[in-house]
Amino acid sequence: MNLISGELRAQLLANGRQTLADEGFDPQPVVKLFTPDAGATWLLTEIDPDDEDHAFGLCDLGHGFPELGYVSLAELTTVRGRLELPVERDLHFKADKPISAYSREARMAGRIVA
Fold it and tell me: Considering the domain boundaries, does residue 101 fall inside one?
């Protein structure tokens, strides 16, 4: 499965350009990725237009400390859980608030709540 389709990639890149132009930009997540056999989840808001391998978002590796940061898209394709299942995209995910709200809720809960 292609983790990020062309349409989603275009939106992530547009958000990345908007972030460069507007320091206060607080986008909604565009895509939710997760490990079906482990506790990791990523809510991605943008791709760095100067380095399209780096995506930014809320990252939760399942250790109780979700944080905002960058992740390598190439590395995500190599991540496997306990049963060796690859990272998947939540095809039904629809963001309903900005990433700052998801981040605040995740810090309080110790995990992404989406």
Answer: yes
